[in-house]
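To whoever is covering the structure queue this week,

Two jobs came back overnight. Logging them here so there's a record in the thread.

Job A:
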Amino acid sequence: MREIRYLQALREAIQLEMQQDENVFVIGEDVRHSLRGATKNLIKEFGEKRVIDTPISEAAFTGMATGAAMAGLRPIVEYQISALIYVAFDQLINQAQKLPYMMGGQGSVPVTYMVIGSGARSGLAGQHSDHPYPFLVHAGMKTVIPSTPYDVKGLMASAIRDNDPVMFFAPAKVLAMKGPVPEEPYTIPFGIGEIKRQGVHVTVAATGHLVHDALKVAETLDKEGISIEVYDPRTLLPFDKKTLLQSVRKTGRLIVFDDSNRTCGFAAEVASLVAEEGFHDLKAPIKRVTRADVPVPFHLGMENFVIPKGEDLVRAIYQIMQSKSEDAVI
């Protein structure tokens, strides 16, 4: 099978869906020039009516996409920076997410919101480094964060075809990553996670680019006789708790490795889920390796302290392996 980059697989999924359904179109800032690379050359194939550049007003074009979706189209909205979805929250949460319920199911809002290059990149500071997916999960919006080229193509196709609003995060640190991807169209259903590596001692539930950091740690610690199982939920909502609970039942230990804030973050939700439904399978307390509860600093040394990384995961694994079963109190 051929190998292509994550960003290329994402672009291919969009292109294939636009070829198959004339109601699919792209809207956002600089999408014709493809500043982020996800819409490269689409203007040549589909023209200006289906690849639409907008003014710098996230609230305006997010609202426009909602209206277009209610009229029967399937917009893909691209945001250049993840934190910019904050200025569109009224349109995202109060409108797109709630309107189908307020209309009693008489209409749908099939919009895909695409954040290219989400998460912290060195030196970009607070307003360009957020990973705000916990806000969307809290609001009940379907939320996707693929970690591999294969996953991103299949999940993007599913997002575009879905009749509900879907928030789609493509982490900056995996955009250039290569992996095997079929040429033909395919979908990956929402709510089905994947065990990226089998293990017997500790389950690491990792999100986005941290899946690859977890795999590297697992490979290193395997030489020390510590066997790590890496679980990738792929979609944060709906969440595949069945696969995670089966993994925890096997290993007896859980670490949640997540690139969002600790307090009320996604890791807190995963930890509470396992505490509620898998407590008796635990041999040690659940641990969370997350961001600190502060904005990402501009200073690189301070940034390094705030952002979760492989060495933090290693430290947590050593600690959880030393814990005794009788100490497993959540």
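Job B:
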Amino acid sequence: MSAQAVAPTSPAVRFDSVAFRYGGEGPEVLRDVAFTLPSGSFHFLTGPSGAGKSSLLKLIYLGARATSGSVEVFGRDTARIGAAERAHLRRRMGVVFHDFRLVDHLSAFDNVALPLRVAGQKPRAYQEDVSELLAWVGLAARADSLPPALSAGEKQRLAIARAVVARPWLILADEPTGAVDHDMALRILKLFVELNRLGATVLIATHDRELVGRSGIPELRLEHGRLTRNAA
């Protein structure tokens, strides 16, 4: 894969007394959450359904703002930056969404290539990287297929390839192994581990206790919106 820009040495993510409720009303989804992800670290984010995992990820990738407290991404307070800097930070993140968010009229190859095209790269510059990633996630033979023709597991793997192809500083994944079998889950984890070894900060939200237990990777655990285990 192509070379990765060097990430800042400041913590990748820092939450300080963060609370969050949707629309500013109703019950708090997150309560007094505080933790730090050092740049270049790898953590799992665990907890039962409804614990607030997806909401926490949303605050990091700038899909929402905290109701109170502060969220910093690579040293920048996300509540105090303008639109241009928010766009810059988003380009440094790779996000694997739980609902995939693929572009149905683009082939599997072009879905993976999309972040590179948006960044201004020419096809000859990214052909090898995209093909390599499709092979890694077992989709080399499906490069020309459209997302509606793919199974849920294939869509999951395609979304992962798209999220990491630009070698982001920060990788956020919401249940990235939820629609694949055990062997493919281990293969996907190996890809994330390799990207982390090359410098990316990785945070994976998962229900897969076996994967967490076997990996030895530190764990942040949410229960009822509160952080009950902080491995940072």
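Note for Job B: The chain has a mean pLDDT of 91.

Please reply-all if you pick these up so we don't duplicate work.
Q.
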